[in-house]
Structure formats: C-alpha cells, structure tokens
Amino acid sequence: MKVFAVVVAFLVAVATAHESCYSQVDQACSKINSKPGLDQELIPCNATYGHINIVTKDLINFANTHIVRSFEYLLMATHYGNYQMNRAGFEKLFRGLSDEKWHEAIELIEQITTRGGVMEFVPPKALNGVEKTNNVYQLYEIQSVAKALDMEKKLALEAFNIHKEASGRSEGKHDPEISSYIEKEFVHDHAKTIRKLAGYVTDLKSILSGPDGSLGLFLFDEYLQKQ
Amino acid sequence: MKAIVAGTLLLCTFALVKGEELQCSHKQEELKTDPNWTDMKHSCINSMRTQIQAELRAAMQYLAMGAHFARDTVNRPGFAKMFFEAASEERQHAIKLISYLLMRGELISDVSTLIDSYIGVEKTEWESGLEALKNALQLEAQVTKKIKGVVKVCEDQPGPNDWHLVDYLTGEFLEEQYKGQRDIAGKVSTLSKFMDKHGALGEFLFDKKLLSGEL
Asked: Gene3D superfamilies from the entry (chain A) (predicted)?
C-alpha cells in the first residue's frame, strides 16, 4: 500500500514536471464553474515528440524546394512542347518530373503535419543568389538532361542532410521515424532517377558525337516517349 | 542571351568530349512569318500568360489551406484532402492553358518567364472550415472573373476575334468554374446548417463526410 502511494506520488510528480497532456486536461476538467479546456490551450496535447524540432525547418525547406523544382521542370517540359523543339519524349520526361515533385511536396507537407509541425510557405534556400535569366529553361536536349541530373543530385543531398540531422544517435538527435521516412520515400527513388538521367546523358553524348545528331535525337525522343 | 548559349556550348565541348565537338544544337525551323500560321495576337497571348500565373497562385493558396487543415491541432483531414486535391486541379488548369498555347504555335520564346521562380501565398490560417470554404469560393470567383477577362481581351483585340480560344475558355474552363463554384457554395450552405445548432460537432461530422467522399 505504501509502495503504491509512493509510486503514485512519483508518477504525479513526473507528470507535472513534464507538463503532460493528461495533467493539463485534468486541471482543465477540475476547474469549478468553467467548461473543461475552453479557457486555455492544451499545449502539450499535440503530435510533437522525439527530435522532430531539429529537422522541421529542413523539412519545410525541402517541401518548398520541391514546389520550385516542380515549376522549373514544368517550364522545361513546356519548351519541348513547342513546334520548333517538337520533342514529345523530352516533354514527357520533364512533365513526369514536374508531377513527381509536386506530389512529393504535398506528401512532405503531410509528413510535417503528421509530426506536429506547421508548414511555412517561404522561398527555399535553393533560390538564394540565383538570378533568373530568360533562357535558363530553353535548352538543347543534352543540356536540359544534364541540368535535371544536377537538380536531382541537389535534392538527393538535401535528403541526406535531413537524414543525418535526424540520426545523430549519440548527440541525442535521434528521430528514427524521420530518417526512415526519408529513406523510404526519397533516398532510393533519388538513386534510381539519378542513374536514369546519367544514363541518358551518356547515350545523348555518344549520339551527338556523330556527324549528324538530329536523327539520333529524333530516335532518342521516340524512345523517351515509350518510357 | 548569345553569351549564355555560347557559354553552354563551350561547356558541352570541354566537359564532355575533351576537344571533340559535341553537336548540341540543330537547325531551327522558323515558321512564324512564312507561312503565317501562328495568328494569336500579343494582347491575347499576354492575358493567357497572366492567367497561367493566376491558376498557379490559386494552386499555392489551396496548398496552404490543405497544410493548415492537416495540422495536428486543427485536425480536419477531410478539408485537407479536399484542398490538396483542389491545389493539384488548379495546377492542371495552368498546364492545360500552356498546352493550348503550344498547340497554337506559341511559347517559342520567353518560356522561362512564364512562371515566377517563387509564388507565395497570401493567407496561411483559417478560423474554421466554414471560413476556408467561403475563402475558396471567393478564390474561384476571382479565377472565373479573370478567365472572363481573358475572353474579353481575345475577343476585342485589334484584328479578328480569336473564336477558337474563346470557345475553349467558355466551353471548358468556364463550365468547370461554374460547376466548381456551385459545388463549394452547396458545401458552404450544408456546413453552416450543420454548425448552426451543433457547432464543433457539425464541423467534425462534415469533415469525416468530406474524407470519405460522401458530400
């Protein structure tokens, strides 16, 4: 009995010390002449736990980068859709990447809110110091694939960085839910996309080294249409 | 412009095939003047370009609405789902307008300035689901008004009325706008009736109905 009382006292002490959701609710419920919980916000009753706070800013930046990339890929796709370029395969490649980034941005927002975070819509760091000139997205075939390869690598490294932040076990920055999420949703897919684009650059390079690349580009575009 | 093209060509040459020249560029067929098949007028094209931006801005605003209702302390997954879907729909509208311009032989140049490098959002928090739905209705009404503006420009421009585009905008876009607006207006009515006597419970039930697609 005594032991029980000590344990209960200990538990109560721990609960109040950590401002638990329960203790706040309990307080709110026991207030006389006031409706439970209406006069105060139940601050600890949110979805935040673990070390999500360390990576929330990075996840927000990552989501904003995806939105910007999505629009950039859309412009690249648009360029290949005009009658002069007339490369339906390249258009499809970049539209696909644009769609992918857009949907990943939405999934990232959902992930941020799943862990109790608040999405902020701000320009991503990737835009810092980048001056937009008029023809950045109006490129020749091999140039645009090379640009996409660079963009994907940057995204992959940003994912690595978030993973690193969330997996510092010894420094107490351990959040396996985030590191696993990054691995599952991004890391492996990035590797595949990067390998695919690098392969395209290899093919385009050999195709364009010949006496007339235009026929080769036509055939390569036809190949891309079927992917 | 020329310097950049030259620069990238140079990069192609040096970085990829040490010494050997890589043939990156090819003959471009300029079919703008002879035969004169691209007949869209500047004012009309520009208003279409502005409309593409407007659709993307609406997409971003819906994204912010989805993000708000997905929060743990807001917890309205049905609203979040509806707004995320609306965001993707607005983006599709922008893509449809781009495809139209491409079909008419436009967007040969100045593609990079078609979309701002960053599109911000105006509002990121809402008092209630009802407020957000009313906001969404406003947003749709604004988009509709802007489409009508594009129609007007493309009808009244100096030179012939651009019948085909005007028909496409009225037949496809306005049709979708009016149907979408009616849908949201209906939802606003239902939700405010739900909430009249039941308040929070009304919003809770409405949200679950949205989530399961029963509304």
From this structure: 1.20.1260.10
Flag if B87 and A47 touch (Cβ within 8 Å).
Answer: no
CATH architecture of A52-225: Up-down Bundle (1.20)
Count the neighbouring beta carbons within 10 Å of the beta carbon of residue B90: 23
**List of chain B residues whose C-beta atoms are within 8 Å of the C-beta of residue A110:** 70, 80
CB contact under 8 A, B99 and A106: no
**Rounded distance, CA B152 to CA B43, Å?**
11
Whether B211 contacts chain A with CB within 8 A: no
Where are the domains positioned within chain A?
Answer: 1-45, 52-225
Cβ distance B114 to A113 less than 8 Å, yes or no, reads no
Q: What pLDDT, on a 0 to 100 scale, did the predictor assign at position A15? A: 42
pLDDT less than 50: residues of chain B: 1, 5, 7, 9-19
Mean pLDDT of A145-152: 96
Q: Mean per-residue pLDDT for A42-62?
A: 90
Size of interface A-B (CB pairs under 8 A): 141
Phi/psi of residue A171, nearest 5 degrees? -85, 10
Q: What stretch of H or E contains A16?
A: helix A2-17
